[in-house]
Amino acid sequence: MMRAFLAWLDDRTGINDLVKEALYERIPGGSRWRYVWGSTLVFTFSIQVITGIFLWTAYSPSAQTAWESVYFIQEKMFLGWLVRGIHHFTAQAMTVLLAIHLIQVIIDGAYKAPREVNFWLGLILMKIVLALGLTGYLLPWDQKGYYATKVTTTIMSATPVVGPQVQQLAQGGTEYGHHTLTRFFAMHAGILPGLLIAFLVLHIYVFRRHGIHPKDPKAAPESSFWPDQVLKDGVACLGVLAVVMLLAIFKGAELSPPANPAEAFEAARPEWYFLFLFRFIKIKLIAAMGTAFGALYIPGLLFGILVAMPLIAKWKSGHKFNVAYIWAMMAGIVLLTGIAFYEDGTNEDHQAALAEVHRDGARVTELANGPMMIPVEGAGSLLASDPFTRGPRIFADKCAACHRWNGHNGRGRLIKMTDASGKSQVTMPVATDLASASSREWLRSVIVDYSNHFGHLTQSRWYKAAKEAGEEEYIDPIGGEMASASEAYAELFAKAENKKDLDAIVEHLYSLSGRKADETLVERGGAILGGEPLASGDEMASCLDCHDTIGSDYASPEEAPYYPDLAEYMSKKWLKAFIRDPSKFYGDKNQMPAYDHDAIDDRDLDLLVRWMISDYQTEVHDYPSRLKDVPKPPEVPTAADKGAATE
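User: That's the sequence. What structure does it adopt?
Assistant: Structure tokens below.
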């Protein structure tokens, strides 16, 4: 029955002749591994079509649903992460294979007459593949793709005469947004694949018409496409698939946080295969000539030479020129790409921006996987109301001029300034580091290491002015009242029998914020502060001798004491009140600016304070500490220095 069916099908379609013609094409000089690149390109495109269709079934192309649908593919759809990873890395593999195939064609002279048209069709296919990569980068509508594509559409405006019109056509209007996404999706999933298939059919047809062009037809006996070359092509395709699968499984396609037009992404970069052009435009001489010169004229000229290669080859030594040119061009691309990677890898600001986008991407995925899931407003709203995400940004904007957070500005970046010699140096803060402000470690440091804890106050203008005027400041980390008391406490609690009592005092003060604490230690700490002697029999000056624990509610700074009220110390309520009006805690000696509602609204203040006291749950890795990179004030002795001096 099957034979009858096949005979009927062949009678109606002539399929047997087509199969024989395709499989038994003669290969002068025998099958070669160098001939596999065209087949691997067709194979990778087929993978892209298949995986693209699966992704398409779950993708929703709109500014409010694109990221969310990609998140669904990545996190919820069965093996969606694998399908997306294969699609992502196969796109990159196609670019590499294109470059190899182009080099092989030129070296073998397969672009010469009568194969000029086939060569030009190949160049058109190369442009379409690169355009597919460019348009696909935007579709997740995440921060990295959004700003990288925005740079690309801006470059379009540099096109002579019709630049603004081309930009508007590509981005769907005068503004970059929802219509940009839908147009890029239409090009990526419809127009460009259709064009690629059409030109690929032409490319294969013309290739079959003229056959393989061997570099040395006498190198080996003639063979046929099946089975010799098919075997090599199959092995090569399996090799490409293996690499793609390994990358998809062990590296995966990243999904950075949702696009946020209100917040610039400083580390915006195109995909790695466009980095050479990005770096080329940054060359000082090229940049001085303008964007159009670096992004359009020079690349257009270089590509024009590629187009002219079949004509150049007709001249004496033309082929040698073409081979030398393609090698020089590829070397330049590799060099510029390497320079771009090196510069980005050694650029602290760029690395900090990447660390932030990775952190935010992991955090928004964590929130979306949480019980609240993704609200109707979209995933971006999760980050907008998240203290773990918003807190560092508010801190960097409002607080980092004076304070630091684990040595950095809250967003993982050291604050630097350029000196007169042009050298960039890390600046010293003029107030204490707040990273542990709500912790037991903070309280312990204030009690027994006050000078070092508040040492950076000595770098502030107000402190230096007071020192020059000879005014005694109780907050002076070197000779003030609290500094002297801290030295006395350090001596008392250096005794082995008193170490548990220090824990008790810290626990008691920690409990004032309302946090869960060890009740036994809290009771003992309260008794010590109430006048009971330490385990060693020594008595200590109580914190309550100077500090109130009744709540700061003073009508004016003049009525406030010079010692901060410890009622609910370091709680959310205490911190909000302190930030709003620190003069109610330090009286007329206060030096910290008040942040009224014009300076910071209630929502941002709440997010900032919740971040400071770690009022959130997350398993996302935070920025590493940079305390070791921040210089210490030279005039402030550390606890180790004091111990050495005592000895």
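The first helix runs from residue 2 to 13.
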